[in-house]
Model the fold of this input.
Amino acid sequence: MKQTSLFLRNSLVRIVFIFCIAALAGTLNIPLAQADAAPPPDPTVGGVGPYQPQKTNVQMMAETVFMDVPPSPKNLAEPKQIRVSASFTMRNQGQAEERMQVIFPLTQLGHGEQPLYKVDISSFAVKVDGQHVTTTEITTPPEATRYADAEVRWAAFEVTFPVQQDVLLQVEYEMLNPYGEYGEGFTGIAYILETGAGWYGNILSADITLHLPYPVTEEAVSANPGYVISGNEMRWTLRDFEPTREDNLEVRAIHADVWQTILNLRAQVEKHPEDAEAWSKLGDQYMPRAIFMHDDIIMGSDPHFMELALEARQKVVELRPEWGDAHYKLAKILWLSNPSIKKKFRMGGDSTTPDPSLKDPAIQQALHELQLAWSLGTEGSLLDLHLVFPELVLTTDSITTVTPAPPTQTPAPTFTPANTASPTASPTASPTLTPTISPTQTPVPAGMYPPVPYGVLIAVTLGLGILIAVFAFRTK
Done:
């Protein structure tokens, strides 16, 4: 019985002691530790972390790729605009037959601001030595980059590779044009080579051809270097190489109908250089090529088309100086092409570029053209001027700068001893009334307790100690 009482007594004492410690911890604002997510692993060979290709003796002897961009569809929002066919000659260089699940990327492994590679899975078809085979879809986790926010998707199919025998793999699919949904008048084409690094040894040869619906020019198409132009085609020839991410192809081509419109307008202004309407339409065609914007963010720019757009806008103002919209469009290209403005509104802007300044002559010119546009009449917007220069006062009649006045300092009060006459104050301006600030309680942040005075802590601790002592004495 005594042992039972002693056990209960000790247990209760422990409980009360733990309660005291918990109470003190709460009053002293001791933070509780919580588990936090660990950073993902770094990308590894091939850049498909955490996916790793299995070791194999199968080598890619040759690959041939043909990508065809048809004429622009009537609906530019239609995303499926690129057809691709590729063949791969594979040879098992080992001493034993290999059977594996070959995979083919359906989405980009790692990308920047706007990925160009996305395969329409419903169009994907595979042949192995001329025979159609069934495919399934698998996924691997995304890369450890700030742009990769979705799993990587792959098409998978079973293949057997006999020793020292060539096996021909053929794939066909349609690619989704990432620019189509934005109506930017571009076609984005990409082809991933880096996944070929998983095979044995080097890739002995790769011949890649891109066919466009118009004669290729470097003005209408931007792409990886190393290509040869032949009429409507661009060709890349690679030999005995180990592909890396830098070898992946990315091509950006102007839609065929947009490019033809530009060529027609160029011919028109060359024939009629005084045609302000034609110059204005030509500038309208150059602008989306000069500044690439999405959701009011500058995604990129092309110096060549920027220069052409500026030239066209200046020509319209020269021909029609009374045209308010012409001045507005000139102000817009001057504003958006300014390096400091591009830095402010561009995703990942250049940190070496200085911040926008009203003293910049180019910005002053843009503001001048905007003022003319408003005085002559235009439906143009304010070009986000208030986001860059909040000190500007913007109206349809003027653009003025307000310099904040320095705060008025209230003179310190002069104390006059009792029974002493106050000196007569000289006439001054009306006194400045200083507002009276009522004392307020400092809000307590969510999840925190207000500080407790040390006297209260000591009293609580002593009181609990007395309770423990009384309890122990009574249970003897």
